[in-house]
Amino acid sequence: MTDSPGATDPAGAAPERRPGGRTARVRAQVLDAVRAELAETGHEGLTVEGVAARAGVHRTTVYRRWRDVGGLLVDVIDAAGETDWRPPDTGSLRGDLTALNREIQESLVVRPSFAVALMAASFHSERAARAQTRLWADRYAQCEILVERAVERGELPARAATDLDARGLLIAATAPLYHQVVLLRADPDPLLPERAAEAAVLAAAAGAFSVPRDVDAGPGDRRPDG
């Protein structure tokens, strides 16, 4: 709950500013500094002192709240999950996946790339790796609505609503971007976002992501866990 401008307490005096306001500002400054430091120097160059200096706060403030570099990484990943990001809605599954892939490609090829630096950092911190896994799982869960819309529009068979591995489809559609840019370190292909999306849609329509029914499994066991 935020402070209301001009609000007064029962005695008629203006209330003191809540500590949360300053705390939120300090957090924003520090996390912005983490992103900048991480993108410029990578995990190896990320230090509490460097973050504090860039953020314009005392290092004891950083140590008190985040303790160490691992804590900074976890919080910057958690902050990414707090943004009001919404999956694309273009009117078709192919269009949605293409738009999603273009967002991904842009985040990977911009220099310096915070997304790539953060992925690399997660290999050096178990806490950061767990936080990143939570973020990815949440993003995939958000994007499952793309498949639900496709079923509603008739782009995919109606049975896909219960028998299709939506996360598997999303991974298949987006994985080529990571393979090309991150693993192969190749130049970005402007046609790849749409080609990868189209391939995933065709595969889904052909039943490639259908989940086999298990007569002994309950309804909640038909789809694999992420």
Automatic annotation (TrEMBL):
Transmembrane segments: none
Region of interest: Disordered: 1-23
InterPro entries recorded: Homeodomain-like_sf, HTH-type_TetR-like_transc_reg, HTH_TetR, Tet_transcr_reg_TetR-rel_C_sf, TetR_C
Lineage: superkingdom: Bacteria
Domain HTH tetR-type: 24-84
Feature: DNA-binding region: 47-66
Keyword Cytoplasm: no
Annotated keywords: DNA-binding, Transcription, Transcription regulation
Stated name of the protein: TetR/AcrR family transcriptional regulator
